[in-house]
Amino acid sequence: MTTTLWLPTPAASARRRSRSVIPGFGLTMGFTILYLSLIVLIPLAGVFFKAAGLGWQGLWDVVSSARVLAALKLSFGAALIGAGINAVFGPLVAWVVVRYEFPGKRVLDAIIDLPFALPTAVAGIALTSLYAGNGWIGQYLEPMGIKVAFTPLGVIVACTFIGLPFVVRTLQPVLEDAEKEFEEAAASLGADRWQTITRVILPAILPALLTGFALAFARAVGEYGSIIFIAGNLPMISEIAPLLIIIKLEEFDYGGATAVAATMLVLSFALLLAINLLQAWTRRRHGGRS
Amino acid sequence: MDIQIRKVQKHFGDFTALDGVDLDIASGELIALLGPSGSGKTTLLRVIAGLEFQDHGQILFGGEDVADRAVRERRIGFVFQNYALFRHLSVFENVAFGLRVRKRSERPGESLIRERVLALLDLVQLGGLERRFPAQLSGGQRQRVALARALAIEPRVLLLDEPFGALDARVRKDLRQWLRELHRKTGYTTIFVTHDQEEALELADRVVIMNRGAIEQIGSVDEVYEQPTTPFVFDFLGGTNILPIELRDRRALLGGTEIAGLRDSIRPNGPADLYVRPGDLRLTEGHLPGFEVQVQGVQRTGPIVRVVATYDAARDPLVIELPHLHHDVPRFKPGARLRLRLMQFSVYPRHEPRPPRAPVTQPVLIGRERKRERLG
User: Is the residue at A30 inside a domain?
Assistant: First the structure.
């Protein structure tokens, strides 16, 4: 007789896993990977493949050129600032919509979604005509020495505009969930309004706020339509990276265009991953689930 | 801290939640606000806390009118029905919250906070769990964290909203005992809201029974149970049989036969309702006042035997409850004709319509058989 050491083979453990109350893991996971590949991974891989044609040196030359660097800096900088502004004021909007009852609440609620629905070019033209030197808002800002349209500031305005619904809509369900009782409990323990907000409400919504921030940021980095109208697109000053890609394409510089695209991809992925990790960390720290 | 409540009224739109409530609570008392849902008990608790404000009337804490004081200035310990523990804070930080938000000049030092919090956690028997998060605790443990958090600010009064509502029956029983003990140890004036009469009767020094925004009766457990002043109170505190009787010269007549005598006759002669608990009906012999019934069914539920019997085919059947070891139990056989007497009852003038009846499917064990005779 030989003693056989029984080891759980992958097949055996897979069979055990499949005895779950929610079956179909294999099928759905397979479909998920196929779908992701077709829709996301293969097109993106194409970008890298094309960019790789330049070689490391060629890639570096494109990316490190002053104009590309300036465009990348503007795109990511403005997107971060825009998302940051929304992360401050978005919660306020969400708060008002969730907590208070007032006439016109439904209308306000619908207006929040407009940046989602509006064709981006329409938004861009509207913003430009508002903020131009002779526009409704621009005419008052101009004398104060603040130029919005056709400057990096305009890019930030557009990024803020399109990012708002992302923050508000991710926060809304969380705020609805954060019962009034928590505020009442804090007040009964002697906390004032500010302490209640900073110690009770903000920590509770922080993970959702990070999600909203990440979504608003991602949208703003990729935004094209609404920005190019208000930005003015001066090279080195108010030219965003997506526009630069188009310009390179129009010059038949496919390698250059994909090099910029690949760089944006890597940077965006790195930032989103960082935000996701931060989110997982806050969630763990706050013992949300055990 | 003694609390006086004077003519407090509260309306929510057209709904009158509190309709002129007067209540005096002595320092150190353990009071239960008992009533069905919608009776105003939770509103009263929240008005005392300052989470709602009364439209009229006064709330006095130790003689001082607190009308203008917001909840955070009243120094009350409030335990919410769902505990409202801060999910992002550990047990330790939850309990320390009330100390940490104090003004810098009044805030105790870090070591003092630590000492206080750990002492409180020991008091609520959660020593060693201070690093856990609320999501990692059982319902009973969360309840005790909520209590420790409320006690940390050394409240002038402890208010508990349905403190055991979300717990299962067994934990509830243990916690009740434990809360009674905690109250004895700490001596805080405590008011708790409940819709469970058993809970109120077991825990409280005095019970305030509320109905439709008003107080029906205030009294010790014995008083409200033995001398319910209104049919509502009688009905709410346990199983009830209602017999339509005729009062004549201190005698209660059911269908023309005397079923009991009254010690005094405050009630005028005429039709009345006699309320008797299922546990207050016993067998008797022919020569004593009583009435005949026919047994319809017998059912044992735990330590109690419930008998359903009719005295008049046209009327609702009666429910009789006996301890399962009672010597009369074998005589209750379906179809048997037996003679019952009333050991304790209340008589109220007939009024229409009758108060909503507590479902008879909830047997309530009311303790030992009382020898004492107390007639309405």
Answer: no
Q: Which residue of B has its CA nearest to A289?
A: B135
Query: Residues near B173 by Cβ (< 8 Å), separated by ≥ 6?
Result: none
Residue A9 scores a pLDDT above 70? no
| Distance of alpha carbon B197 from alpha carbon B228, whole angstroms | 13
Residue A7 pLDDT: 47
Q: Which chain A residues contact residue B84 at CB under 8 A? A: 179, 181-182, 184-185
User: Could you say which of B72, B76, B152 has the minimum Cβ distance to residue A191?
Assistant: B72
Q: Which amino acid is at B290?
A: G
Number of folded domains that form chain A: 1
Structure token pair of residue B118: 């750990």
CA–CA gap between residue B117 and residue B57 (Å, rounded): 37
Residues of B in contact with A188 (CB under 8 A): 49, 51, 71-72, 76-78, 150
Look at residue B172 and tell me whether its pLDDT is greater than 90. no
Query: Is the sign of the CA dihedral B230, B236, B240, B243 positive or negative?
Result: positive
Are B61 and B101 spatial neighbours (Cβ–Cβ below 8 Å)? no
3-state percent breakdown (helix, strand, coil) of chain B, nearest 5: 25, 30, 40
Band (pLDDT 50/70/90 cuts) for residue B210 is very high
Which residue, among B101, B105, B149, would best test binding to A if mutated, counting the most A CBs under 10 Å from its CB? B101
- In-domain check, residue A40: no
CATH label, B3-225, candidates 3.40.640.10, 3.40.50.1450, 3.30.450.20, 3.40.50.300: 3.40.50.300
Residue B97 CA to residue B134 CA, distance in Å, equals 14
CATH number at residue A171: 1.10.3720.10
For residue A77, being part of any structural domain is answered with yes
pLDDT in tens, A215-272: 999 999 988 888 888 888 888 888 899 999 999 999 988 888 888 999 998 999 898 8
Distance of residue B99 Cα from the nearest chain A Cα, in angstroms: 8
Pick the closest to residue A44 from A277, A275, A266 (CA basis): A266
User: Which backbone phi and psi does B90 adopt, to 5 degrees?
Assistant: -70, 170
Identify the domain containing residue A105 by its residue range.
45-284
Query: Can you give the pLDDT at residue B367?
Result: 35
pLDDT tens digits for range B12-21:
888 889 998 9
pLDDT in tens, B318-327: 999 999 888 8
B1 CB within 8 Å of a chain A CB: no
The region, left, alpha or beta by phi > 0 then psi within -120 to 50, assigned to residue A2 is beta
Nearest CA in chain A to B154: A189
Please give the Cα distance from B243 to A233 (Å, whole number).
Answer: 92
Mutate to test the interface with B, among A189, A195, A281, A282 (most CBs of B within 10 A): A189
Q: How far apart (Å, rounded) are the C-alpha atoms in residues B144 and B55?
A: 33
Residue A289 pLDDT greater than 70, yes or no: no
In a domain, A1, yes or no: no
Q: What is the CATH number of domain B228-349?
A: 2.40.50.100
Which residues does chain B have within 8 Å of residue A190's beta carbon, measured at their own beta carbons? Answer: 72, 75, 98, 101-102, 153
DSSP assignment string, B125-137: T-TT-TT--GGGS
Instruction: Tell me the per-residue pLDDT of A172-190, one tens digit each, with 9 for 90 and over.
Output: 988 887 778 888 999 999 9
Domain-wise residue ranges, chain B: 3-225, 228-349
